[in-house]
Amino acid sequence: GAPASLGSGFSGLDDRPAQSARRPAAADSAVAESDVRPRIQRLERPRPRIPPGGGGGRFMRKVWFREGSISRSGDVRPRENRSVTQAEARLRENADSRDRHRDLVRALSRAGQLQRAEEVAKQWLERDPLDPEALTYLSDVVGRRGDRGRALRLLSGIVDLEPENEQLQERLADAMARGDRRQHACAHRVALAEIKRDGDEARARNDRGRARSRRSRAPEANATVDAIRCSRALGQSKVVEALLNSVPHEQRALVEGQSYDAPSEPRRGERVSLNARWFTGDLDLSIITPQGTRLSWMGGRRSVSGESAMSPSLEELTLRTASPGTYYIEVNRPTAGSGAARGEIRASVYGTSSTIPFEFTGERAIVGRFTVARRWRLQ
User: Fold this and answer.
1) CA dihedral in degrees (126, 128, 133, 135; nearest 10)?
2) What is the rounded average pLDDT of the residues 325-339?
3) Which of 366, 367, 375 is nearest to 114 (CA)?
4) CA spacing 20 to 30 A to 192: which of 33, 137, 220, 379?
């Protein structure tokens, strides 16, 4: 019959090794075994056999992805102005707070109140004239207000404050190259090669693993190749010789050979692309991020790339990736001017495309916006 409880049945199984030590009689052993086996058979469920190639259904998994939407509206959302009001009140509570100055500049930049944003950024710098973040925001605002040259000078000043900052040197090298300032761009590439070389030498001294040391030389070698290539194009033979002499002997022939090759094409696969056509002369294209920073041919993130920045008829701005949020698309004059500015922008955001025509008469205009949202599906 059925056991009184499952607990007593499992207890019998657990006690079998102890019972075998007492060597029970054969008949008793047979009875015990016949009494236990049916219990085991009733407790174990047979496993279904799955035919080769699947069958009987499968588990679904959640897959995250990003999708984009594009709007032609040039209006600033009401929430941006509410953020300005809140940030102004917080700064009044503590006028010496660096973070509250930064938050207000961000909010004003998002709301398009650039004159006030420039005033607050300058107040921030009065308290700390060497703050790189304050200079970056000021450069963004100045560039959006139509002073391209001053914006570049401010960015250059940031690098002077942090000459060992690889990311800043790389940003300036790319920005100067896009702005057709080849000599300035090459100077930043030479500085970048020296920074990477010094860093790799320090790591090599502290690293006893030869394989890891070889891997660490790759970024330095690539930066040196770029620096040699641009220096040779400018006819700076002494700089080329000095850079080659800084390369380890076993790598010198390889680096010198690569420096004669054409630069590799930038990695594609962007998720956001803006292709603009100017009908009335040179303009500047910008993306204003959810954090209030400016992305343009001058940089702003490592994922941004710009082409044809100095062209009077077109410009391209791309992002390899974009975090969720709402971004404003802005067009501004690179210098002071008047009259109507016209053009159109072909926008593509995570598979969604739209063409945005525009016309404005002031120094700048927000001509549209796009939103990146994070979604999921089961598959």
Assistant:
1) 40
2) 91
3) 366
4) 137
User: pTM (2 decimals)?
Assistant: 0.77
Angle at 283 between CA 282 and CA 285, to 5 degrees: 140
pLDDT of 17 higher than 50: no
* C-beta of residue 228 within 8 angstroms of C-beta of residue 221: no
**For range 187-208, the mean pLDDT:** 75
Q: What is the pLDDT of residue 138?
A: 96
Rounded Cα distance between 284 and 112, Å, is 16
Q: What is the mean pLDDT of the chain?
A: 84
Core vs surface per residue 76-96: b (16+ CB within 10 A) or e: beeebbebbeebbeebeeeee
Provide the 8-state DSSP code for 38: H
Phi-psi region of 235 (alpha: psi -120 to 50; beta: other; left: phi over 0): left
**pLDDT confidence of residue 262:** 83
DSSP β-bridge partners for residue 67: 373
Q: What is the DSSP string of 284-345?
A: EEEEE-TTS-EEBTTBSSTTEEEE-TT-SSEEEEEES---SEEEEEEEE-SS---S-EEEEE
Element holding 65 (H helix, E strand): strand 62-71
Give 2: exposed, middle or buried? Use CB within 10 Å, 0-12, 13-18, 19+.
exposed
Strand ordering across the sheet containing 314-319: 304-307, 314-319, 272-278, 341-349, 352-360
CA 292 from centroid of its chain's CA atoms: 15
Please answer whether residues 128 and 119 qualify as being in contact, where contact means their C-beta atoms are separated by less than 8 angstroms.
no
CA distance 108 to 102: 10
Q: Read off the pLDDT of residues 103-117 as tens digits, 9 standing for 90 and up.
A: 999 999 999 999 999
pLDDT in tens, 50-67: 555 555 557 889 999 999
